[in-house]
TrEMBL record:
UniProt family annotation: Belongs to the glycosyltransferase 8 family.
Lineage: Eukaryota, Viridiplantae, Streptophyta, Embryophyta, Tracheophyta
Name of the protein in its database record: Hexosyltransferase
Principal location class: membrane
Species in which this protein is naturally found: Dendrobium nobile
SUPFAM superfamilies noted in UniProt: Nucleotide-diphospho-sugar transferases (SSF53448)
Name of one Pfam family that matches: Glyco_transf_8
Gene Ontology molecular function terms on file: glycosyltransferase activity
Length: 344
C-alpha cells in the first residue's frame, strides 16, 4: 500500500517524511540491523467510532530494537490497531530509520520528527548514567512543539517497554485539570531525587509548595500528556528553567531529565493505575541487576534502569522477566529465518 509523506517545519522540528511505495520489505541502506516484517493487525468490531490514539516514542540506532518491540506490543494488544498513529522523534539518521519502521510495519501510520539536539546540548549536565545524558532523552520535553497542533493529546512511551493490554484504556483516562497522567509512587523517598544542595537552599524547596497533593515520584517513561494545556502553560520553558539552574547555578539533581519533571509536575499529576508502568525491570542505574514485578496486575512492562532485555538476551545472561520481552523482538538474525509470528 503506498505511503505518502509530507514535509513540514514547526517551531522546533522538521518532520521527516519517508516514502515507501510498493516494496514488500525495503531495507535501510545504512548500518542499522534488519528486522522482520510484523504481522498485519486489523481493527475489530466497533472501531469505526473509536478515537485516533496518538503515541509518541523516540527513535535512534541504539534503542531501535526496543522501539519496534514496543510498537509491536501495542498493535498486538489493542482492539483497534489501525486507529493508533505513531509519532517518532529522532536526531538521525532519518531516512534509514523511516525505512526500517516502514519495512517492519508496512501499513503503520507514522511520522518522524527531527529533534534539534542543539536545543538541549547547552542545558544537559552529567548524570549517574551516560544514556541519561543523551539529547534525545530530553525530547519528551518538546513534544508540544514538535507535534502538529492538531494533536491535542499524546501518550509518551519510552523505548524499553512492552504493552500487554489495550492501549485505548490508558488513552481514555480523564485528566481533568491536570497536564499529565502517570502512575505515582508515593512510597518512594522523594527527597532522594535531589541533592543536599537543593534541599539546603533557602528558595529551591519552596518550588514544591502549594501543590494540589503531596509531591510524589512518577516515572516519565509512561505519560498521558494534554498538549493543549502544556502549550497554554508554557511548560517547556518551565522545565528548561530548572535545567538552567542545574547547569549554571547549582547541581540540584543526578538523574537526567526526570528531576525537572518532578519539580514542575509532582503533586499535580493525574494518578494512573500502577499496572500501566511496571517499571524498574532493568534494575538500578549503576549495576542493572535483575528485579521482579511489583505486586498487582500488569498492563505494561518497563525495563527502566541500566539493564535492557535485548542486551542481556544477546549476552546469554537474561533475567527471568526478559523472556516476556523476547516474543516482541523483530530482529532478523538470519535472512533464511521463517516469517515472524508472535504468539504471546
Amino acid at each position: 500500500m503506498p505511503r505518502h509523506y509530507r514535509t513540514s517545519v514547526s517551531l522546533m522540528a522538521a518532520v521527516v517524511l519517508v516514502a515507501v511505495t510498493g516494496c514488500t520489505n525495503p531495507l535501510p541502506t545504512g548500518d542499522l540491523p534488519a528486522f522482520r516484517e510484523a504481522p498485519a493487525f486489523r481493527n475489530g468490531r466497533g472501531c469505526a467510532a473509536a478515537p485516533t490514539i496518538h503515541v509518541a516514542m523516540t527513535l535512534d540506532a541504539t534503542y531501535l530494537r526496543g522501539s519496534l518491540a514496543g510498537v509491536l506490543s501495542i498493535l498486538k494488544h489493542t482492539s483497534c490497531p489501525e486507529n493508533v498513529t505513531f509519532h517518532f522523534v529522532a536526531v538521525s539518521p532519518f531516512h534509514d530509520l523511516g525505512l526500517t519502521v516502514a519495512a517492519a510495519f508496512p501499513s503503520l501510520p507514522f511520522r518522524i520528527y527531527r529533534f534539534d539536539d542543539a536545543l538541549v546540548r547547552g542545558k544537559i549536565s552529567s548524570s549517574v548514567r551516560r544514556a541519561l545524558d543523551q539529547p534525545l532523552n530530553y525530547a519528551r520535553i518538546y513534544l508540544a512543539d514538535l507535534l502538529p497542533r492538531a494533536v491535542r493529546r499524546v501518550i509518551y512511551f519510552d523505548s524499553d517497554l512492552v504493552v500487554v493490554d489495550d492501549v485505548a484504556r490508558l488513552w481514555g483516562i480523564e485528566l481533568g485539570p491536570y497536564v499529565l497522567g502517570a502512575p505515582e509512587y508515593c512510597h518512594a523517598n522523594f527527597t532522594a531525587y535531589f541533592t543536599d544542595r537543593f534541599w539546603s537552599d533557602p528558595d529551591f524547596p519552596h518550588a514544591l509548595d502549594g501543590r494540589a497533593r503531596r509531591p510524589c515520584y512518577f516515572n516519565t517513561g509512561v505519560m498521558v500528556m494534554d498538549l493543549e494545556k502544556w502549550r497554554a502553560g508554557v511548560y517547556t520553558r518551565r522545565l528548561e528553567g530548572w535545567m538552567e539552574v542545574q547547569k549554571k547555578v547549582a547541581r540540584i539533581y543526578e538523574l537526567g531529565s526526570l528531576p525537572p519533571f518532578l519539580l514542575v509536575f509532582a503533586g499535580e499529576v493525574k494518578g494512573v493505575e500502577h499496572r500501566w508502568n511496571q517499571h524498574g525491570l532493568g534494575g538500578d542505574n549503576v549495576e542493572g541487576l535483575c528485579r521482579d514485578l511489583h505486586p498487582g496486575p500488569v498492563s505494561l512492562l518497563h525495563w527502566s534502569g541500566k539493564g535492557k532485555p535485548w542486551l542481556r538476551l544477546d549476552a546469554g545472561r537474561p533475567c527471568q522477566l526478559d523472556g516476556l520481552w523476547e516474543p516482541y523482538d523483530l530482529l532478523l538474525r538470519r535472512r533464511d529465518q521463517s516469517p515472524f509470528a508472535v504468539d504471546v
